[in-house]
Amino acid sequence: MSTVRTPRPLSSPSLLRPQEHLLARLSRYWRDGGPWGWLNAMAVSVSLLLMMGLVGLLLAGSLGHFWPSRLVEIALVPPTTDTINASVQTTEAGVGVGTTSIDAAPVDKGQHLLGELMREEVRHVQMATGASRPQQWWLLQTSSEQSAAASWRWLPKDMLNTLIFPEQALALELRDGRVLYGMAESLSDPTTGELVTTGPADETGSGKPLVDDATPLFSRLAHLEGQRRNLAALRSDSKQLSEQLSDLMQQGTASLNSGEVSPALAEKIETARQALIQREQHLMTLRDALTAGQLSLAGRGGYDGQVALDDIKRVWQPNALGFGGRLSLTLSRFADFVSGTSNDGGEGAWPAIFGTVLMVVLMSVIVMPFGVMAALYLHEVAHQGRLTQLTRIALRNLAGVPSIVYGVFGLGFFVYGVGAGIDRLFYADQLPTPTFGTGGILWASLTLALLTLPVVIVATEEGLARVPQRLREGALALGATRLETLRRVIVPAASPALMTGLILAVARAAGEVAPLMLVGVVKLAPELPVDDSFPWLHLDRKFMHLGHQVYDLAFQSSDAFSNRPLVYATALVLVAVILCLNLSAIRLRHLLAQRYKGATE
Predict the structure, then answer these.
(1) How far is CA 241 from CA 143, 232, 262, 272, 282, in A?
(2) Spatial contact of 507 and 574, defined as CB atoms under 8 Å apart
(3) Which residue of 22, 103, 180, 442 sits 20 to 30 Å from the alpha carbon of 169, by its own alpha carbon?
């Protein structure tokens, strides 16, 4: 007789882990590092949010400068007695320079202003009766007629009669950095240069006046841009022809000294001379055509006068642009900012970008060999005694020395010591004008290499400590010398740590400004440290730096309020440059780690 065995239910208490007491569970949770994992994850999340917030802040701050704002035409009414006598109790910080107060510019009846409304603010003003009341004020940016600094005007709401946004209003960005707002009235004749006033519109819609249809203006500017490119190409050809003629003249002089100039050589010289004369005449014609054009602006509160077309960098109609047009114009203006220079008074960050990247590359080339050799000596060669430990402690303390101290040391040792000695030895004929005895990109790179040297040494030593001892012993057992073991086994295995040290050094060097102000960085450098003249890399030249440009725009400019978006934009470019440099080093470290994977396991 068979018996049926009843299966034991899965929920039987004997198959489950006995319930753990709450205190035991908490103890195990803390022992396994549970809360620390959560804290680390929270710290990483906060860091990422802060980084994203910083980038977002820089983007939003710089967008206000490159994004085309709408132009407003304001009809003003004379201020009331209370408004004129009102004393502003709340002052605006940072807009003092260039601000035109209402008392300094009396308003006539029917006066109009054209510009961009930048911000509004509620101020408490004191009336003639002694009472105070809140009043709304508007900040209007009008044409900067005298200099690149913007022209600001605070206007109380009581003075604003009507506000309209005319689609025909033009915004002109000039090559000297000025910005003009106005209505187009006429264009000059392209051949004679005389102003031609456009007539009224006819019934068919053609022949509209320039103030209603600015298409002829845009066509003329596009044509001038093409002529400008032709002029640059002709200048390059003219330079080559001049060099060819100079070579032929030297050959003719040598032939004349030895006897007689051959007819073929004389014909070549004459042909080259005539070609150069024709090219110069063509150049003069193009230059005259570029300088002959004039644009006349007038009326409705904007700029009233003539502007040379050759001085106009860009023209747009903000009120007629859609979202796509605004985005395209914003990207175009930002690209010009990144690739432009500031030598002509305009804005541009390219010399500062080039100087920052070149200085970081030179610093990396200098600091890496010294840092690696010092770490190898301390970890692989030196006796691990008290003196070595004291040396390590000193290196870690050097990493915490303020950067300005390194700048003072670089100024005294490199510039006034080594640089002045080089001038006395090799450039004595140019003294007292210093060549290397003044700040330059070489001394700046050496100073920053000295500043980042402890970081590289410490990171490299950490990497060397992770190389297993069995690799050293195995290489020596196979007959390799100690130098071969270092060069072919230990250094390649520790190369990812070397790249980590380089990343840390680049991150610190690219953001340092204080020591550079003493050893070579300037506000405006007329030439880049690299050009086509021998020896191509001019280590004695001063250079521009993005960090210093941020400081200069924020604290040294006469119009800090209008330069505020440029401060954000320059800081954004600096962050992007540091990110690109670090990503390059991280990519190289990843490749090295993949190549020597398993060596340190």
Answers:
(1) 44, 14, 21, 7, 14
(2) no
(3) 103
DSSP H helices in 380-520:
386-398, 403-409, 420-426, 441-465, 469-477, 482-485, 491-493, 495-511, 516-519
How does pLDDT run across 291-338, given as a tens digit for each residue?
777 888 877 778 888 888 888 888 888 888 888 888 998 888 888 888
Are 457 and 374 contacting, i.e. CB atoms less than 8 angstroms apart? yes
Measured CA distances, 243 to 252, 458, 532 (Å): 14, 54, 15
Burial class (CB in 10 A: 0-12, 13-18, 19+), 418: middle
Could you tell me if 68 and 321 are in contact, meaning their C-beta atoms sit under 8 angstroms apart?
yes
Give the pair of three-digit tokens for residue 487.
């060069």
| Nearest Cα to Cα of residue 520 among 588, 437, 444 | 444
The answer to whether 537 and 529 have CB atoms below 8 angstroms apart is yes
Residue position matching structure tokens 């330059």: 440
Residue 599 tokens, joined: 């060596």
The per-residue pLDDT for range 460-471, each reduced to its tens digit, is: 888 888 888 888
Report whether the peptide linkage leading into residue 190 is cis, meaning its omega lies within 30 degrees of zero. Answer: no
Q: How far apart are CA 193 and CA 206, in angstroms?
A: 24
Residue 581 CA to residue 578 CA, distance in Å, equals 5
Percentage helix, strand, coil, to 5, in the chain?
55, 15, 30
Which backbone phi and psi does 347 adopt, to 5 degrees? Answer: -105, 150
Peptide bond into 18 cis (omega under 30): no
| Locus of tokens 């029917």 | 110
181 DSSP β-pair partners: 171
Query: Measuring CA to CA, which residue among 521, 572, 531, 584 is closest to residue 356?
Result: 521
Closest CA to 497 of 473, 475, 466: 466
Q: Give the rounded distance of the alpha carbon of 107 from its chain centre.
A: 41
DSSP states of 537-563 as a string?
B-TTS-B--HHHHHHIIIII-S-HHHH
Residues 6+ apart with CB under 8 A from 252: 261, 265, 266, 269
Instruction: Give Cβ neighbours of residue 119 (< 8 Å, ≥ 6 apart).
Output: 138, 139
Sequence-ordered alpha helix ranges (H) in 259-293: 263-292
Show the tokens assigned to 249: 């003249």
Chain centroid to CA 189 = 40
100-157 per-position pLDDT tens digit? 444 445 556 667 888 888 888 887 777 767 777 787 888 888 887 766 666 778 888 7
pLDDT band at 226; cut points 50, 70, 90: confident
Burial of 223 (0-12, 13-18, 19+ CB in 10 A): middle
